Amino acid sequence: MTAIVSNEKIPNNVNLSSDKRLQRALEQWLPNYLGWWKEMGPEGFQANDVYLRTAISVAADGWANFDYVKMPDYRWGIFLEPAQEGRKVGFGDHADELAWQQVPGEYRSMLQRLIVTQGDTEPASVEQQRLLGQTAPSLYDMRNLFQVNVEEGRHLWAMVYLLHSYFGSGGREEAESLLERRSGNPDKPRILGAFNAPMTDWLQFFMFTTFTDRDGKFQLLSLAESGFDPLARTCRFMLTEEAHHMFVGESGVARIIQRTCELMKQHPSEDVTKLGGIPLDMIQRSLNMWCSLSFDLFGGEISSNAASYFASGLKGRAYEQKKYTDHLALEGNVEIDVPKDGRMVREQIPLRVAMNEILRSDYRDDNERVVRRWNEVLEENEITTFRFKVPSTRFHRSVGVYAGHPFAPDGQPLSAAEWEARKAEFLISDADLAYLRSIMTASVTEAGKFASYIAPPRVGIKGRPVDFEYVRL
Ligand SMILES: [Fe+2]
Ligand SMILES: [Fe+2]
Hints:
It is a single chain. This protein has helices spanning about 20-40, 110-130, 140-165, 170-180, 200-225, 230-265, 280-295, 305-310, 320-325, 355-380, 415-425, 430-440, and strands at about 50-55, 65-70, 335-340, 345-350, 470. The protein is mainly α. The protein has one domain (about 15-295, about 380-470): Ribonucleotide Reductase, subunit A (Orthogonal Bundle), CATH 1.10.620.20. The strands form two sheets. A three-stranded antiparallel β-sheet has the order 2-1-5. Strands 3-4 form a two-stranded antiparallel sheet. The longest helix has about 40 residues, at about 230-265. The chain is globular.
């Protein structure tokens, strides 16, 4: 295996041509994938040239090549980080044994479930975003959307490679099913909640790529520690792509905030919706929505599944090797407040059973850093009357101990009646969505021009100017 990606029908750095059976199986999956892409990928732009990056290597620096590509010709492929000689299982009951190069029989179904669940999110997000090209705020943003989309498609390839290589006929069937489920379809929905939520405008897209792609980062960080070595190496390369998705989200929201501040200063007495801008409180409601949906993706606070994943060495904590010295996690507890009989009771949760909560709280800290940077945009613009906040992990949850208990974004318990009365103050509402659709009716297609509600970026992509023709229409 090398760092350089081959130039075959399925680009790869795993020496695919030496395994004819696997190569043939993946070449048979390829037209099915392309069929799915054409049906469910970005609608209306399949024949356009888009300035995209493509992996040509897995080396840390300079892995990407930038050029115009038509999306169906994107070089989706299979890229794993190089193996580390003698790598050991880093945690759990098998800590210090040699990492597995084949699936350990006793963990087969658990491991397959982990890979399928991760794999299902990748095409789901492409489906959720498929109409957004028609309302892009600029060519620069349209290109970023398509870059995210093709890379989520590649992430699907990464998981399908593992299913085909290591899980026999069961794995091949799961690979087919990944192309059959559809985001938001009541009969065959995607597996996880946030990946079935509709995404009808660009504020929701930027919040999704900030918060839900960041969930992806933390899931990948924990799988990058896996004792199943091919999964760990796959996820390490995926993380390099994920960083761009989160950049698109965070910088997109920051540019919307910047523009709102400018409009507030130009017309201090005016409602920014009169000027085609997005009010700060509406941005906060979207933040509350996607952050809370993403908290759910980490699973229940108290989870025997999470304990099994950790015990078996399949899924660790984020930065398991770097951050922790005790990799057994058999001693110690995590304290959480659990709602019981109308009040909050502090409970001690044994570490292994609390693995979901540990990952979610690392994720929450990362979100705090992002929101601090958004608040800096307010500070630079001398807006003193508003600050963005990360909602409490209790707020608006459908999974875990807080599900079914209404809380305000600051974590205070509410009665069911209070929740109903105040829901539209907390979460993006139908009225908000209707307003956002009204200011996003068509794409801005002149290079260097931007929609009324968003500031231009400071720099373009890969040294290109902001007014570069990122998509040739
Ligand atoms: Fe992904
Ligand atoms: Fe992503």
